[in-house]
Amino acid sequence: MPDLRDLYQEVILEHSKSPRNYRELKPADHKAEGYNPLCGDRFTIYLQMDGDSICDIGFQGSGCAISKASASMMTQALKGKTKEEAEKLFHRFHEVVTGKTESHGHEAELGKLAVFAGVSEFPLRVKCATLAWHTLEAAIEGKQEAVSTE
Ligand code: ZN
Q1: Which residue, 11, 33, 80, 88, has most beta carbons within 10 Å?
Q2: CATH topology assigned to domain 4-141
């Protein structure tokens, strides 16, 4: 078992302390709420879309370091991306955090998101890492009810 310190890598801690794009977008074309009852993570994702492209993205809420850093880094990774690119990146990210694929060889595609590969050692934490992404999907699809990881 790796030490927790390996999981809470510097970059994750840094993002959880100073989250990027931590703001409500007004007005937002799309927004959705996500909740992870296992850990108590709760976030709202705000989107401004131009056709299929994400022009602006923000989030607010509270949660553990992993969930917050994941939301922060997701917003950085997705600004300017299309819906399809976002879905593809989520798919890749999900494979990495669940240990289904090695992040090795996909560093360019994942960028900094590759730091979350350590999460695969802690199955309960996978929901923390993917909460923002599930919430983003709901926001894009315009779902009204809050997303729960349960
Ligand atoms: Zn959490």
Answers
A1: 33
A2: Sufe protein. Chain: A (3.90.1010)
76 CA to centre of ligand 1 in angstroms: 20
Cα 37 to averaged position of ligand 1 atoms, centre (Å): 9
What backbone phi and psi angles, to 5 degrees, belong to 147? -85, 135
Domain boundaries along the sequence of the chain: 4-141
Lowest mean pLDDT among 14-18, 110-114, 137-141: 110-114
Expressed in angstroms and rounded, the spacing between residue 50 Cα and the centre of ligand 1 is: 31
* pLDDT level of residue 3 (50, 70, 90 thresholds): low
| pLDDT band (50, 70, 90) for residue 110 | confident
Could you please report the per-residue DSSP string of 29-41?
Answer: SEEEEEEETTTTE
Which residue's entry shows tokens 């349960």?
150
Distance between Cα 66 and ligand 1 center (Å): 6
| pTM for the model | 0.90
Partners of 32 in beta bridges? 45
